[in-house]
């Protein structure tokens, strides 16, 4: 049975409302987590649970629409990277069993209108800004921990256009998702600076913190948002913060006799999750910040080109067309 990943639960309240010493203490806790497993559960983060529940509700209403209607908002341009991606249309080296909707900050040409889903856009826009505010605070916290100067990340995120993603993993037979090369989402690292991840209570998210091939469960923890380091932050910190592999598979929860008897253990329930991927300004150059005597482990990359190239790798735009 998969063990549980050792991911710290950190209260963010002392960073938002505390003294300078409190802020530094939280910054150290975050940095310790990000430089080891690469993940943290953040609680008291300022986004009310009722709002998070509301967004899960919106996701359910959206994904419950007929496929033909969802396809009218199809994501088809990696530079715009906004809209709907059907189950099977992502081509990232394996077979995922999921469908997604991406929402952006500045333009959402492929978004349901108020006549399709009355509150969808305004509520998502609002949630987007709550996630952006929290994400920028987390970056500030990291800048303090690494003595980069409080506004280090502010300077490279003034026009940042992160990606709010709604994911639906449909109910599916276990034997389908457990085939070789299949998963709800196959092992990957995220490629921006960091990701905020809200998950429902179903479970199945696993991380391989030290890249040993031993995936461990990152169980849902009520009232928290998971934050994980992504590839650009790893490059920027010359590997000090770690972007680690993760995947979503069958939850390893105990099966009750009752569920076994009537066959419910053979079918996974639907799962929903909401990642928010934070990317820097497209013109930012991501150059490793070195400590004295240290050699750069990564080449400088342009954040905009990096994002488009990695988005293209993940989607088979032809298949989706
Ligand atoms: O659904 C999840 O919990 C993880 C999603 C994820 O890793 C991703 O979209 O990059
Ligand atoms: Fe991910």
Automatic annotation (TrEMBL):
Q: Membrane-spanning residues where?
A: none
Is Iron one of the keywords UniProt gives this record? yes
* Protein's GO biological process: small molecule biosynthetic process
Q: What terms describe the molecular function in GO for this protein?
A: metal ion binding; oxidoreductase activity
InterPro entries per the UniProt record, alphabetical:
DIOX_N, IPNS-like_FE2OG_OXY, IPNS-like_sf, Iron_ascorbate_oxido_reductase, Oxoglu/Fe-dep_dioxygenase_dom
Which stretches make up the Fe2OG dioxygenase domain? 159-280
Name the Pfam families on file. 2OG-FeII_Oxy, DIOX_N
Keywords tagged on the record? Iron, Metal-binding, Oxidoreductase
Q: What family is this protein classified in?
A: Belongs to the iron/ascorbate-dependent oxidoreductase family.
Q: Write the protein's name.
A: Fe2OG dioxygenase domain-containing protein
Give the species: Lophiotrema nucula
């Amino acid at each position: 049975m998969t063990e549980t990943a050792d991911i710290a639960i950190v209260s963010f309240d002392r960073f938002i409302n505390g003294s300078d010493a409190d802020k530094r203490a939280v910054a150290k806790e975050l940095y310790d987590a990000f430089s080891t497993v690469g993940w943290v559960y953040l609680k008291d983060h300022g986004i009310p649970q009722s709002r998070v529940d509301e967004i899960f509700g919106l996701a359910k209403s959206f994904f419950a629409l007929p496929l033909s209607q969802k396809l009218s908002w199809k994501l088809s341009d990696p530079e715009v990277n906004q809209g709907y991606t059907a189950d099977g249309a992502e081509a990232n080296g394996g077979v995922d069993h999921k469908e997604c909707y991406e929402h952006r900050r500045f333009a959402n040409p492929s978004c349901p209108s108020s006549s399709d889903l009355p509150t969808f856009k305004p509520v998502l826009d609002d949630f987007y800004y709550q996630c952006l505010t929290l994400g920028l605070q987390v970056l500030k916290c990291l800048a303090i921990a690494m003595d980069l100067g409080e506004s280090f990340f502010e300077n490279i995120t003034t026009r940042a256009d992160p990606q709010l993603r709604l994911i639906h993993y449909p109910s599916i037979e276990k034997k389908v998702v457990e085939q070789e090369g299949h998963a709800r989402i196959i092992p990957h690292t995220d490629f921006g600076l960091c990701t905020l991840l809200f998950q429902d209570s179903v479970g199945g998210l696993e991380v391989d913190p030290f890249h040993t091939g031993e995936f461990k469960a990152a169980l849902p923890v009520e009232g928290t948002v998971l934050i994980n380091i992504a590839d650009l932050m790893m490059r920027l910190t010359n590997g000090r913060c770690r972007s680690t592999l993760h995947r979503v598979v069958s939850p390893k929860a105990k099966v009750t006799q009752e569920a076994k008897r009537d066959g419910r253990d053979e079918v996974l329930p639907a799962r929903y999750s909401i990642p928010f991927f934070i990317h820097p300004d497209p013109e930012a150059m991501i150059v490793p910040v070195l400590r004295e005597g240290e050699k750069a482990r990564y080449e400088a990359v342009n954040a905009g080109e990096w994002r488009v190239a990695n988005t293209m790798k993940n989607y088979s735009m032809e298949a989706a067309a």
